[in-house]
Design goal:
alpha+beta; 12 strands; about 20% helix; disordered N terminus; disordered C terminus
């Protein structure tokens, strides 16, 4: 009898599919404020073996057009693929932020200067967050405040306040690779640089796992009005995913996101 049970268990385990990957859908919705719909997005993602693919099913973001998708390899390197134009480009968020910093330096020499004053990131909560899609979560909450001062030649300085409360529900029960979690969390979130980014990263260093839900409420100027952005995983299932899903299709041309795209040639007025 014992030998029979042992043989039965081994056979049952061998017949069970080896689910190594995950498929999930992420929905982002922004409400309140001007141009709120620009933040709306639906993304289908697949992850397996340290690689990930994030396809933009619905989006108003000109950088990630509908039908394009983001590939993440085992090193955490990201590539944006555009099937409509049959092109692909490396997506280096750090380099983009450095480029923006260089542009800000150039603007500063012309008299334009942007600075953050009195930044503060306060952790308010870390508690059990209940279950989402059957996975236990931890609920985190942060309160971030700062003052933005834009110095403009002739017009002088313009001051704006920043005040937001961020709630995150994350789980460590899924076990996605760290680079996939990082890439997913970087999508659709505010990208700060310099000391502001260091402060925010330091405040969130204890947060671990995969974010199943994120809600950010940003107050309007003078406390009037607010904008709420909700990002949540609505579907999540285990799956076996073909390796070809994480490959750049043959025949696609590499482009550079950091370089301006060429437009139509200007007509030669001498020939008119």
């Amino acid at each position: 009898m014992h030998r029979f049970l042992r043989t039965f268990v081994i056979a049952a385990v061998a017949a069970t599919p080896a689910w190594a990957g995950l498929e999930f859908t992420v929905v982002t919705k922004t409400e309140g404020g001007e141009n709120a719909s620009m933040g709306n997005m639906v993304m289908n993602a697949q992850a397996e073996g340290g690689q990930a693919r994030m396809e933009f099913v619905e989006t108003n973001n000109p950088m990630f057009r509908q039908g394009s998708y983001l590939l993440v390899n085992a090193k955490g390197e990201m590539t944006i693929v555009d099937p409509e134009n049959k092109t692909y480009a490396k997506l280096d968020l750090a380099a983009m932020m450095e480029g923006m910093g260089g542009a800000m330096d150039a603007m500063a020499k012309a008299g334009f200067k942007l600075e953050f004053k009195d930044p503060k990131v306060e952790k308010l909560l870390e508690e059990p967050g209940g279950e989402i899609l059957g996975y236990p979560t931890t609920h985190y909450r942060w309160h971030t405040t700062y003052t933005t001062v834009m110095h403009i030649p002739i017009m002088g300085a313009k001051t704006m306040s920043g005040d937001s409360v961020e709630d995150v529900w994350s789980t460590t029960a899924i076990g996605l690779p760290a680079q996939t979690e990082k890439a997913f969390q970087s999508m659709g979130q505010n990208q700060f640089s310099g000391e502001m980014k260091k402060m925010i990263d330091a405040a969130k260093v204890t947060m671990t796992g995969f974010q199943l839900k994120r809600v950010v409420v940003t107050k309007g100027q003078g406390g009037k009005g607010s904008q709420t952005t909700t990002t949540e995983v609505t579907k999540l299932q285990k799956a076996n995913i073909p390796a070809t899903r994480f490959e750049i299709p043959a025949g696609y041309t590499e482009t550079d996101l950091m370089q301006p795209q060429k437009g139509p040639a200007m007509p030669d007025l001498k020939e008119q």
